[in-house]
Predict the structure.
Amino acid sequence: MNHKILDILEYQEISNRLAEQAVTAPAKSKALNLQPASDRETVSRALSETKALVDLDRIKGQLPLTDFQDVAPSLKRLKVKADLNALELGNILLIFTLAQESSRFVEDAEENETLDLAAIETLLEDLELPDDLYRRLRTSLTYDGEVLDTASADLARLRHGRLRHGRLRHGRLATEAEIKEKMTAYTRGKNGQYLSEQIVTIRDDRYVIPVKQEYRYKFGGVVHDQSASGQTLFVEPAAILPLNNRLQNLLAEERQEIHRVLHELSLDAREEMEAIKRVAAALSELDFLQAKAKLAKQMRASQPTLSADQSFKLLGARHPLIDPDKVVANDIALGQDFDTILITGPNTGGKTITLKTAGLLQLMAQSGLFIPANEGSSVAVFDQIFADIGDEQSIEQSLSTFSSHINDIVAIMKRVSDQSLVLIDEIGAGTDPEEGASLAISILDFFRKKGAKIIVTTHYPELKLYGYNRERTTNASMEFDIKTLSPTYRLQMGIPGHSNAFAIARRLGMREDVVVVAEKLMSSDDSDINHMIDELNKQTKLATENKQKLQTSLDRAKQLEKKLQDALDIYNQRVQKQLDFALDRANEIVAKKRKKADKIIAELEEARKEGMQIKTNQLMDAKGEFNQLAKQEANLAKNKVLQKEKKRHHVQVGDKVKVLSYGQTGTVTKQLGEHDYEVSLGRIKLKVTDRDIDKLATGQKQQAQRRATSASRSSRARSSLDLRGQRYEEAMVNLDRYFDTILLSGLSTVTIIHGIGTGAIRQGVQQYLKRNKHVKTYSYAPANEGGTGATIVTLK
């Protein structure tokens, strides 16, 4: 891609913003040097890689990356058999650790079956570590280059001492402590009066005290330095000389041992140079791709599809360098129905920005970046994008604006092809209007014969007719609000613009007779064109108003549907209450009649036992009362309330039911008794009776599920848990209790603050979250919110 188009469209500003999103220095450098590709395969692969990181960020969060130094200088030193210093080896250790953490992070994310990371599979494979070197580095030093006691047994002995021949041989740390203890004794009590300051300091790597000049012989020993005034001498007391000598010997031995350890580590690293280079490159590339994903999120950008016919369709395209709160989105399409667009309209109306938006979004897409446009947008892959935009008059060459533009167009004409996009601002401007219009038409014809895709802006009325007379060519304009006398920056496809001079003059108070004379002076062709434009504007405005009315009607219909649904829910609740009341009354009636029947039977039975003569009229009365009870029971059997009650008693495990006391829909998970059930409402399980539930039919289940998903629940549960400063066992118990609380709270996202420390609690939290079936995703917090010291958890 030619560098001039990158400068004209301010592509470097996009690169700078991309670099700001990168974490590591190599990724920042790659972002600053990013260039658009010109072949379809490369662009497609780059967009797929960006999508993989966008999806990973959406599902799991950002990779656990921190900055590290470029390993190229270290590898160069290893290649010439030089030893690496502790900082260089610590940097390699940091790279390996980041690679291991990133691998684990991705493995956890891949448990989500919707995540597709095939585009970065090779990069992930390149994170594989040389285990032996990693283990040796991990036990030998820190990321900052501090050599650990565990680097070697001799180093541990030199620092901490050891028993030798039954006697304790002091190490460096013990010797330093003994020296400090004795030196501190000189700064306290009576000895303090002989010192300029009650402090212990170091001169020539030896511990000394600042003694007043007149007491230089008070402590004996050696004078190592004096103050600028000569009034203070820095003395190593005689009693400290043997200890300082021992310390110097231990320090020399320790430096020698550290040098030996670093030499051995360098030998091991030299054997794994390719692995070090591979892992560092993979991490840098992942950071670079993550920067693309973060930039896409910042710009609210989307992934475009690639067209196969050099066409593009940008829906709701926004210029990425304009304030998001002020930018106007436009639909820009080229290559499907037409190959040339001629944009007309007033100055400062947005024509140039429209050109730049189309060109810059194409460059971004061909660089593997998502574009600030709506979903469903598509882009082409051009071999070159050419532009002649703005006043680039060359003072050095004494060229006019017209000459400068013509030079640029001539250069474009030499390189343009059917795989090119050409953007020209104010084509043919800067010279006689009639000649300029004719030249512009000829230039456009040339580019069209070459098969290029073209977008130009112009003021020439002749080019408006060109847009109608040429095949696969269309007019467009930037909308202008006559009422406010200001541009709206909205692109109108298919409609040419005009100057609106007469309308503006009238709005500003110009005499009507003057305006009328001016209108008569216009040629008939110009009048016809302006009349045609006015008619098109009216039709477009009418179509837009109708669309808005339809949208308004649709919104109202949706609101009415919601109100009706809410009213239906209230009605059903009231009906349910009435049914419950009727059921209670029916049960009461049945109970009374059953009691009366039992009484009649008991009286007859008693009479029979006593041998009493039962009269005929008594039998008839009893038979009539039984018949009446049977009739009422038959009526009750047909009663809808009782039918509904019977239906409730036929509930089985797995049935969808509505819990009436809560107004929520759940699933029967267990039968606890003849009339008692366990019902699951999301993460909450309730014990209910069969009178508090209503079995749902299939249609009701689906409707209830939709309503249930919209139900909101509140809780006083805290949205974060701080485990810092706790013991591991205590932290795990508190974490488990905290999850019991939030599962009933309805919270969807919580933060677990575990700190960095030794990493034990952090790993424990990660393992707990991995096993917890209620956790949907979890990831480290952003760098400005705690980084790897906190984990953000999303619940199912």
